[in-house]
TrEMBL record:
The potassium channel is composed of a homo- or heterotetrameric complex of pore-forming subunits. This is Potassium channel. It comes from Salvia divinorum (Maria pastora). InterPro entries: Ankyrin_rpt, Ankyrin_rpt-contain_sf, cNMP-bd_CS, cNMP-bd_dom, cNMP-bd_dom_sf, Ion_trans_dom, K_chnl_volt-dep_EAG/ELK/ERG, KAT/AKT. CDD domains: CAP_ED.
Length: 735
């Protein structure tokens, strides 16, 4: 057992030593892939993801070469040397040779054979899919991709144009096809881009070398073109060229074709350099019209090149380059990881995420900070609102809520294998999947278990954010994925404004959940916040209705307030408006379908409040809208009105259909109380509306008995007359 442990330690040490160099390097950044908006390049090596490595074993089709294979990397460096040679030799061949000598011809054949071999190898090199960011090992897809990209240019560059030129009768137009080989200079450019992002190499040195090579190549090409222009004239007119008319001291270039190649090239290069630097001394100058035109074009391009060189040098001095900022940040991270011995896997994830951030430029949102808030909101809505609308969590939410969420979200990208949410953690961030593929897994899964694929537009971490409970599963990216993130605090701030939409979100969360989760959702802090906001807004609505402020009431309703929300008394805004007699507010609430028959905690409806306070206009509006006067205990209500001697209120209640013979808890009718209190006018109103003098209470007493006890003879007489009248009417009804 101890021996096996030691062997495992030795293997780990070997693995660590093999990856020491990787720890300090920045992998190749591929500039060909595009994002979903065709805007940002995502340029990271597939080797940074162990997920891709697992795919490489399962998806391989025959003989396929991985881009990070060490033999292929060596081959790439070998091809780079030939690309440098070809890029510099092509202008030289075009200008100085019309038919290569034997030694150079054999070298050219060897170079073209090498590039032909590279074309064949390119059909077997796996590539990174620009959308899923997984390595593609399907041979047909690899071949199709290469055929659509650089194959035609590469194959044309490998043709023996020198042989074709001789076979076609030395037609000059054929020689122009040599310039196709300059496409190989792209490999040199890619090489310098890799060097710039390699933290092991001094960035200032790399940039200076690159700028020097650019300048050297431009002057080299210009020198070749200068010489070519001189050779295109007939021999009789060669004295009318810049080199044919050149006299340097006692040395004459009149018969320049017979001067050795090195002298001619150096002379042409000298002419190109002093012309580019615009410090010509006059000894070499354009002679004919074609040379003058080319010099003008060359100097114009040199001004642009000079500005480019100066701008780059300035950026180096002030450290304003984006690449240099990336290198500095990466260098600090590498030092931190090595000092704390974070390990290979964590180090790869950190470096991969930083590189993705650099390449995708999703942190460039800071560039928009100087724009006005309204303009930034428009940009966010344009970019993210279509995705937010598709999130099931926000189904049924208002457009205003969706727009505010779109402003609050932040865009993030995750590489294959990167974890978005860890099992057992409680997060404060909610994610929405826009593009890509995510999967749910358990940290300790049984063998053969299949991860759950999360569909596009789904929300991640919603239960954890709302209920503050740990995540049940780990969510990770299975391919390059773009997500939108919103912080819990920002979400709560929006919900506090649009709390009606917060209730919709809670309902969406409850849908299809288990009982224990439903209970936790309803008891969550977010649900409590929504209830508090609803109560506060209900109070504000009632205050606006009570104050008669129609403008404020309308604004609150448009902001999402429910006009049927009640306060702690159970009263709605319509109750308060009816009680205060505000006809315009009552009319507005009726128009927005407020509940006109809603009862408060005492069983009173808005129509009852209007009648009680004598607002006939409001009562008419409510009755026209279909309101019915429904009193929970009509007997008690009428008896209380009689006890308070509220004659008008009593008359309005009776006029709206309340039964005058309704009884209270002692089985007393309103007429009992009126007779006992000696209220003559109240008794008259009750009798006129059909009150019975024969009604008895729980002690068997009638209103007439109560009047006799009170000793009001006038009232007794009124009730006796009413008794005779009711007896007569009853007898007539029987007959």
């Amino acid at each position: 057992m101890e021996r096996s442990r030691n062997r495992a330690r030795e293997e780990d040490d070997d693995n660590e030593s093999e990856t020491d160099e990787q720890r300090y390097s920045v992998e190749d950044l591929n500039d060909s892939s595009k994002s979903w908006r065709n805007k940002h390049p995502f340029n990271l090596l597939s080797s940074q993801s162990s997920f891709n490595f697992r795919q490489s074993q399962s998806q391989s089709h025959g003989f396929i070469i991985r881009p990070d294979n060490r033999w292929y990397v060596a081959w790439s460096h070998f091809i780079l040397i030939w690309a440098i040679y070809s890029s510099f030799f092509t202008p030289l061949e075009f200008a100085f040779f019309r038919g290569l000598p034997e030694n150079l011809f054999l070298l050219d054949v060897a170079g073209q054979f090498t590039f032909f071999l590279d074309i064949w190898i390119s059909f077997f090199v796996a590539y990174t899919d620009p959308h899923s960011y997984c390595l593609v090992y399907h041979r047909h897809l690899i071949a199709l991709r290469y055929l659509k990209s650089r194959f035609l240019i590469d194959i044309l560059g490998c043709l023996p144009w020198d042989v074709i030129y001789r076979s076609c009768g030395r037609k000059e137009v054929v020689r122009y096809m040599l310039w196709i080989r300059l496409s190989r200079a792209v490999r040199v450019t890619e090489f310098f881009e890799k060097l710039e992002k390699d933290t092991r190499i001094n960035y200032l040195f790399t940039r200076i070398v690159k700028l020097f090579v650019v300048e050297l190549y431009c002057t080299h090409t210009a020198a070749c073109i200068f010489y070519y222009l001189a050779t295109t004239l007939p021999p009789s007119e060669e004295g009318h060229t810049w080199i044919g008319s050149l006299q340097l001291g006692d040395y004459s270039y009149a018969d320049f074709r017979h001067i050795d190649l090195w002298t001619r090239y150096i002379t042409a290069l000298y002419f190109a350099v002093v012309t580019m630097a615009t410090v010509g001394y006059g000894e070499i100058h354009a002679v004919n019209t074609r040379e003058m035109i080319f010099v003008m074009l060359y100097v114009s391009l040199d001004m642009i090149l000079g500005a480019y060189l100066l701008g780059n040098m300035t950026a180096l001095i002030v450290k304003g380059s984006k690449t240099e900022r990336f290198r500095d940040k990466m260098a600090e991270l590498i030092k931190y990881m090595n000092r704390n011995k974070l390990g290979k896997s964590i180090g790869k994830e950190i470096k991969g995420h930083v590189r993705l951030q650099y390449e995708s430029s999703y942190s460039d949102a800071s560039a928009l900070q100087d724009l006005p808030l309204a303009l930034r909101a428009k940009i966010s809505n344009k970019l993210y609102e279509p995705y937010i609308k598709q999130v099931p969590l926000f189904n049924g939410c208002s457009d205003g809520f969706i727009k505010k969420i779109a402003i609050k979200v932040h865009e993030e990208f995750f590489l294959p294998g990167e974890v978005i949410v860890e099992e057992g953690t409680t997060g404060d961030q909610l994610y929405f999947l826009c593009d890509g593929k995510l999967e749910k897994v358990r940290n300790q899964e049984d063998e053969g278990s299949v991860p759950t694929i999360i569909p596009v537009n789904s929300s991640i971490g919603d239960i954890s954010v709302v209920c503050r409970i740990p995540e049940a599963r780990t969510v990770r990216a299975s391919e390059l994925s773009r997500l939108l993130r919103v912080d819990k605090q920002a979400l709560v701030q929006v919900i506090e404004i649009h709390f009606a939409d917060g209730r919709v979100i809670i309902d969406n969360l409850l849908h299809g959940r288990e009982h224990h989760l439903r209970k936790k959702i309803l008891e969550s802090s977010m649900a409590v916040t929504i209830e508090r906001c609803e109560s506060e807004l209900a109070m504000r609505l009632n205050c606006a209705a009570n104050d008669g402020d129609l403008h404020r009431l309308r604004h609150l309703v448009e902001a999402g307030a429910d006009p049927n929300k009640i306060d702690y008394h159970g009263q709605s805004p319509l109750h308060r408006a009816a009680a205060m007699g505000y006809e315009d507010i009552v009319q507005f609430l009726i128009q927005i379908d407020a509940n006109i028959n809603l009862r408060d905690n005492c069983g009173k409806t808005p129509l009852f409040e209007a009648i009680k306070n004598g607002h006939d206009g409001v009562a008419s509006l409510l009755e026209e809208a279909g309101a019915a006067l429904e009193v929970e205990s009509p007997g008690i209500c009428l008896c209380e009105a009689v006890a308070r001697n509220e004659l008008d209120f009593l008359a309005r209640l009776l006029a709206n259909g309340i039964n005058p013979n309704s009884k209270n808890y002692n089985l007393q009718t309103p007429l009992h109380l009126a007779a006992a209190e000696g209220l003559f006018q109240v008794s008259v109103v009750l009798l006129q509306n059909g009150a019975s003098v024969f009604a008895t209470d729980r002690w068997g007493r009638t209103p007439l008995d109560e009047a006799r006890v009170g000793g009001d003879h006038k009232l007794v007489q009124l009730l006796e007359d009413a008794k005779r009248t009711q007896v007569t009417e009853f007898s007539a009804a029987i007959r």
